[in-house]
Amino acid sequence: MSADKGSPVGTWTGTVAHSNQVDKFRISFAGDGTLSLQTELESGVVSAGTGTWTRTGDDTFSYRIQEIFHDEQGRAAHVFVAVDAVTAGEKYTGTGTGELRTPDGHLIYETVPVVDARLEIGELA
């Protein structure tokens, strides 16, 4: 559990369901409001991203991420994700919006991610 009850500071692992698939991820929230993410797609492709998070209430927070994604053929795309989340002890859940765009910004598709995560490494109270 993080030192600040309800804070996401720490490293979490979980799943994100979107567009009829479920991917595994690991996300680290830093105390300065930054974050880093690694996602493993069902296909085995791994993507990475960075972003920011903000506390929105006693047990709520939101975050924004930009990932660089390469499909099995090596084509690049950018994934933009925004999630509103709720903490419950050493777990958080959230929903939001996701956009997959070409490197020059054209929208490929939109999706609604549903996130479920557990604290892996955190600051002890």
Briefly, what is this?
This protein is mainly β and 125 residues long.
Description of the molecule:
Helix content is 0%, strand content 66%. It has 125 residues and is mainly β. The protein has a single domain (10-118), classed as Lipocalin (Beta Barrel). A hairpin with a 5-residue loop joins strand 7 (91-101) and strand 8 (107-111).
Give the oligomer, counting copies of the same chain as homo and different chains as hetero: single chain
CATH class: Mainly Beta
> Average pLDDT, to the nearest integer?
89
What is the H/E string?
EEEEEEEEE
Strand content: over 45%
**Strand line-up in the sheet with most strands:** 1-2-3-4-5-6-7-9
Overall CATH architecture: Beta Barrel
Provide the helix percentage.
under 10%
Q: Using the alpha-carbon principal axes, give the shape.
A: globular
| Major sheet characteristics | 8 strands, antiparallel, barrel
Estimated structural class = mainly beta
Number of domains: 1
CATH topology (level 3) name: Lipocalin
Number of strands: 9
Radius of gyration computed on alpha carbons: 14 Å
Topology:
Blueprint: E1 10-18, E2 21-29, E3 34-40, E4 46-55, E5 60-70, E6 76-87, E7 91-101, E8 107-111, E9 114-122
Antiparallel strand pairs: 1-2, 1-9, 2-3, 3-4, 4-5, 5-6, 6-7, 7-8, 7-9
